[in-house]
Amino acid sequence: MKRFIWLFPAVVAFCAMNAHAQEVPKIEISGGYSYMYADLNGSSFHLNGGGGSLTENLNSWFGGRVEVNGYHGNEGSTVVSTQAITYGPVFSYRKFSRITPFAHLQVGAQHGSVGYLGISASAYKFAIGPGGGFDLILNRKSAIRVDGEYIATRFLGLTQENANVSVGLVFRFDKW
Predict the structure, then answer these.
(1) Structural domains of the chain ordered from first start
(2) pTM of the model
């Protein structure tokens, strides 16, 4: 019990030291590696690729993000690719000195090549991607971003429930 009594003030002091507000960048540009687990009613495959995003922070907790991703891989014996462009709001929590958790809802289009999810001709379809992640702040101008999202699409009249995980660098410009 004595350890708990001393541990509680130490935890409160640690949180207080890390609870000061961050500088809020006006613009964030990120890019990195992306992995997609694509699923079509139990038939699944893995795609590797990359992507980038541009975020404009309107204040310390709200902004807009446009994101572009491209993936490439094999579905059975067929080489397939897919690209996505989405846009939506991002909500950030900037109360820690070294980490910024965020949540977002991306809406846009997904393009599938011939053979992607069994399609016979390349096509664009509506895509929606709620997700979230965090930025690990390296310094005032850069961070490491880890992001995950659920991406729903509808090719061939069937709903696909895909998962996307990304990791990359963020370059931060200006401040509010």
Answers:
(1) 23-173 (2.40.160.20)
(2) 0.82
